[in-house]
Amino acid sequence: MRRKHREDEDTAIDMTPMLDIVFIMLIFFIVTTSFVREDTVEISRPTTNQDTTPPKNPPPLIVVSIDEQSNVFMNDRSIDPEAIRANIETQLAADPRSPVLVRVHEEAVNNVLVTAVDQANAAGVSKVNVARWITGK
Questions:
Q1: Which InterPro entries would you find in this protein's record (predicted)?
Q2: According to the model, what pLDDT value does residue 2 have?
Q3: What are phi and psi of 89, to 5 degrees?
Q4: What does the pLDDT look like over 22-53, one tens digit per residue?
Q5: Can you name the residues that pair with 74 across neighbouring β-strands?
Q6: Fewest Cβ atoms closer than 10 Å to its Cβ: which of 9, 42, 114, 137?
């Protein structure tokens, strides 16, 4: 006897088990992923709604300058990057309210900038301002 093939018989693959496995793997990877928090340097940017009236009797500004060869200057004299803390502490002894500004040339090495900010923080300055050093050409 000969078999008859039914053309109306539908052959389909059930995708439900495969989707279950994919979702289980997705949940596994989400749960096992560890998120690493990287160390960052806090730099505060100026806002547009600052009070523009200058304060009465402002404290003197302590300026640390870093040129394009990554040389460090304070009060127009060259100093060692590791001596920034001692120089800032000396100037803070005269007026502890003095803000610190680190002027850095855009071609200076970033490590010197980070060292300058770290040295200023170690000297007891709570907020160090960073500005780009613009040179006249």
A1: ExbD
A2: 64
A3: -60, -35
A4: 999 999 988 888 777 777 777 777 676 766 67
A5: 64, 77
A6: 137
Cβ 23 vs Cβ 63: under 8 Å:
no
Residue 107: CA atoms inside 13 Å, Cβ hemisphere, count?
A: 5
Domain extents in the chain: 62-132
- 27, two tokens: 């949940």
Closest CA to 84 of 74, 94, 99: 74
CB atoms < 10 A from the CB of 11, how many?
4
In 1-110, the DSSP E strands lie at 62-66, 72-74, 77-79, 100-104
Q: Is 18 helix (H, G, I), strand (E, B) or coil?
A: helix
**What pLDDT, on a 0 to 100 scale, did the predictor assign at position 50?**
63
In whole angstroms, what is the distance from residue 81 CA to residue 76 CA? 14
Closest C-alpha among 108, 98, 20, 18 to residue 58 = 98
CA angle 110, 65, 48 (to 5 degrees): 85
Cβ-based neighbour number of residue 91 at 10 Å: 18
CB 91 within 8 A of CB 98: yes
pLDDT of residue 25: 94
